[in-house]
């Protein structure tokens, strides 16, 4: 195993656990919006009715009725899949781990957005992968650049977060998704499409997943209940072409046998009682409001030289500061002023500037967002 | 990734799901002994009191109070450890995965008992490890054989299940454990001690873990709540020397971020309310009775040429048949007679005979054990 970089994010999360710190650092959903009572009712129902099954070992593939629910949900998202194509995982993070194990040997190349999700870098680094960033503009990956990268680097797969990307918040337009799928088919490229945030759209219209255009069976689609129910349940899934599915299944079994039988059944009862989508609409509305408040506060208070993305959903926006900005030094001062964010450097698998900040807006109330931006902007003006 | 062998056990489990099949195949605890009501009360308590924390992302290390409980439990088992040494994992299976990632590169050697736990073979095979079996007699690993194997193969670690081993049911005596720890210290050998069954002793006296004698910090100790609460919660742990702990922690984070916040808190409330150890005593008594019934039925009905182990705890016994026996062929006939077991072949990482059977006695009632042995023994007599 190679040296892994420690996760700056999680170290900061610990420092900022005190309530007086306004943290835009973590990637946490709003806990006050968790459907605690409905989950509690679901847990009681699961343990009242066939309770011992919910506590027993179960199939590595996942709980059958939950896989059925996911297959139906996939159709709603524009992807034809049967329950047999669905592997339930311990959060969608585990999909990254399993895909890394299935596809990567030491030295193998993964194509990624630039910047990309920190814990994906870590998962693939555990397999001693190398990263080749795909040129990325204001609306995401540039598909036309990919064939040359394939020829040069023979990547094992491309990792992408097309919706409300982490860390930038950017959404890849439909025409680029279709092109990605076509390039994958033509060049035999595997794509790992990670979609944790897609249901959190508060503006604009849904764009079908890359997997929607995947006629050649080259796309693995990963998603999670972390943002539409709660992350503590660690329940996600992957839809994969059959041969890849079988490999992932064997690796899943060796990794943790199966995902919590209890959590899977709680999720299933929750999803099939009441109106879970109405709850998601509530989350969406709250996050939309919070983004709006953060954006307005930034416009009002940030000095010249700073710009930021305007995501149509998700939990993050991405600030680009003046070239000479050292975001890590800024963070050190910010923590003293009781406000935190994540410096952007660690999200770049290759070399990159130090002048980026990732701000999370889902985990703070509008009042705290205003106050936090106020503290942060004051620091930026002092520079 | 190398070709993995599919798990015969899990494929058989699917075939034997019909209730008319008496299955000695799986490795399942007795579901009628799961503390369903107490777990249900714990789930309600967890969600009533600070419920949103139980559904939020949490630290990769594990839930603090649960780590404290485990540290205290480790002392009871004869191992000095602080909560900081405890990493909570998604079942103890995940410890095998993390240790494999931390220590193994393709081609590296793991020393194992012969036979050993099937899913450990799979976890280390995912890292493309090679297996070197340590000579094993009727009471387990022979420590004296290990120094020569270290010199010859430079193994990355030794994997062992000292209590009621899977698949044989054998328990390694204290003097051999002490020797193992001494050899590890003298030769710089890492030991991964897997102890899922240690609390299931129904005869004889507890033997301290190898970790008890680990003055040199060479032993990783893994255990689980699967057998003392319920496996569906997928909650286990590892106690590791600090440097190894940090590596495992980083790999844990990349694998699934953390183990279910909900399940960890449910386990903790369950363990700290009522008398969980009294419940374990009930499980122990039931398994002891079931072993006794199986042993008596085997003695009464099995033909000459078959012998079996007499475990003092755990869930399995191990039958050695006549040299010419083909246990896989026997299984095919047995399934037609509505009784199932696991052929022993797959538990041997190297070459071995085909004349072994693993029988599980924890998951069947005494009546079904008698009837199942009756069916199986009839087949064995017909050979």
From TrEMBL, chains A, B:
All copies of the Aminotransferase class I/classII large domain together span 33-376
Instruction: Report the InterPro entries cross-referenced here.
Output: Aminotransferase_I/II_large, Class-I_PLP-dep_aminotransf, PyrdxlP-dep_Trfase, PyrdxlP-dep_Trfase_major, PyrdxlP-dep_Trfase_small
The UniProt transmembrane annotation reads none
- State the superkingdom: Bacteria
* Gene3D superfamilies from the UniProt entry: Aspartate Aminotransferase, domain 1 (3.90.1150.10), Type I PLP-dependent aspartate aminotransferase-like (Major domain) (3.40.640.10)
Q: Which CDD domains does the entry mention?
A: AAT_like
GO MF terms on file?
pyridoxal phosphate binding; transaminase activity
Obligatory cofactor(s): pyridoxal 5'-phosphate
Q: Which UniProt keywords apply?
A: Aminotransferase, Pyridoxal phosphate, Transferase
Signal peptide, first to last residue:
none
One Gene Ontology term of the biological-process aspect is:
alpha-amino acid metabolic process
Q: Which SUPFAM superfamilies match?
A: PLP-dependent transferases
Relate the assembly described in the record: Homodimer.
What the entry lists under PANTHER family is as follows: AMINOTRANSFERASE, KYNURENINE_ALPHA-AMINOADIPATE AMINOTRANSFERASE, MITOCHONDRIAL
The similarity annotation says: Belongs to the class-I pyridoxal-phosphate-dependent aminotransferase family.
- The molecule here is called Putative transcriptional regulator, GntR family
**Lineage, broadest ranks:** Bacteria, Pseudomonadati, Verrucomicrobiota, Opitutia, Opitutales
